[in-house]
Amino acid sequence: MSTRKKPIVVVTRKLPEPIETRMMELFDTRLNADDQPLTQGQLIEAVRQADVLVPTVTDHIDGAVLAHANPNLRLIASFGTGVDHIDLASARQRGITVTNTPGVLTEDTADMTMALILAVPRRITEGERTLREGNWKGWSPTWMLGHRIWGKRLGIIGMGRIGQAVARRARAFGLSIHYHNRNRLPGAVEQELEATYWESLDQMLARMDIISVNCPHTPATYHLLSARRLELLQAHSYIVNTARGEILDENALTRMLRRKQIAGAGLDVFEHEPAVNPKLLELPNVVLLPHMGSATIEGRIDMGEKVLINIKTFVDGHTPPDRVHAGMF
Ligand code: 8YV
Q1: Which of 15, 32, 35, 57 to mutate to test the pocket of ligand 1 (most atoms within 8 A of CB)?
Q2: In the list 204, 224, 242, 315, which could disulfide-bond 268, CB 3.0-4.6 Å?
Q3: Could you report the per-residue pLDDT of 255-288, keeping only the tens digit for each?
Q4: What does the pLDDT average to over 242-265?
Q5: Which domain covers residue 60, as residue numbers?
Q6: 18 and 97, same domain (yes or no)
């Protein structure tokens, strides 16, 4: 057993038990047993203390927080794939490496996306609500009619790992696959997915029956689906977002849903989580989920394993496998 001092690892939220136990064995770990999200003051305290910080999507690690980091804070090993809650430029300048947990939540997030692609046009939660509220008067040939998804066009925005996993599922449900991405996929992948590439997002939006948002939130994708772009959608179309709320203008979307300028939406993420535009809650043609796209116990354990590996390789002096960027010095 090495006598070298173990690094202080501060974990901001409660993680699955096997991950926390291993974290305790490997490092000088500070856990958050009652899982209360940290306030900005508590986050500042955490970066003052930590050699390694393990945050999640609920921690906003901006420049103001990082300004209080102690000089030994060398790694932010985030639990999650998206890193839009971390001011990457500021971390980099301070010599702090950032890692994430990509790959292990691809299939779970794609499943949830497919669930919403089915749930919204087929009015699944609306039907369930009606039944639970005791308002089901019995079967009728013209009641609770939704829309068929077989044979419709799905436009995927962001054709990375998750976008492609959605495409594979959607093909099996008879949807034809269209996509917009920063870079066109290799021909072999396009062929396998029978996917049509649209260089112009505007042109794709105007022609699709269902849109799925699967790109990361970056400064370039903030309000990518602006009011102007949302207005390009056809009135019968649906939109599903399991990526980040900030990618679409939630107020504009709500307005369009209320005016029936689009047919419905399935949202797992929101612009100001955990707040949800109250007008969305009043609409029958939306399915709203509390950011649970990757919420499986298997996924959470895999994410935790990735965090452990990233920390261990880093403190042992190697390049962590999921490095988003290295600190600048
Ligand atoms: C995670 C996510 O639950 O990984 C992501 O980017 O959005 C979620 O699936 C969350 O980020 C954990 O921090």
Answers
A1: 57
A2: 242
A3: 999 999 999 999 999 999 999 999 999 999 999 9
A4: 98
A5: 8-104+296-315
A6: yes
